[in-house]
Amino acid sequence: MIIYSSDSLVATRYSQRYKMPLKTFMNLDEKRQKEIIDTCLKEFALRPYNEVSLSKVIQKLSLAKGSFYRYFPSKRALYEYLIGYAKKLNIGLFEKTLKNPGDDILEAWSRFYAEAAKLDNEYPVFGGFGYKVSQERDNVVLGDVALKSKKQGLKILRRLFKEQQKKGNIRKDLDVDQMVYTLLQVQEGVMDYLGLKYKVDYKKNIARGKPLFPIPEETLKKELEGFARILQEGMGTKRRKK
Length: 242
Prior knowledge:
Blueprint: H1 11-15, H2 23-26, H3 30-46, H4 54-60, H5 65-68, H6 75-97, H7 105-122, H8 124-134, H9 145-167, H10 176-197, H11 202-207, H12 217-233
Helix pairs in contact: 3-8, 6-7, 7-8, 7-12, 9-10
């Protein structure tokens, strides 16, 4: 899922330029559009881009090949649309939780992650696709997703952290870039941590159409609060005087 790496912070930037389908697709009723989108999301979530067969997608949708290409002219055009579609869903979460974090940016980060996980559990095929994309280092459309995500995440969060410093909510003696990078690293690592602790097999969940996070919402909330507390308070004892 896109949201579980710092890639989620690039949502606004990319969604402004993602490919649109042909008018014939937009003329379909919403139910049929969603059926086509969900089928395609699942195919790309389960297989590398080069192994996705449009013929199989078309067969699953009970479409004539000519009809499908009147919706999307190529596999790449379809893939670019799916990436933009997925990222567009994340914009609302970012606007809701992190754009105006209030006085506690770490609490806002916890809410952002929890809300994102809730969305993925409600819409598993979206979560599976996002997770797949976020793990790629040589994405055919985005290139090195992780690296680009960190760069954009640093840019966006740097501004938020500086505002928090001015308000006195974050220590002014710490380097902003180091704090932001630490948060981004934690954000990416949380999913690995949860997978190990709760024995979650994300790939199997994606293949079976199950939620990525088969753990109670309250449990996830407590785990996120734990990470936020470590970031807020640190984990070292007082230094000994020399």
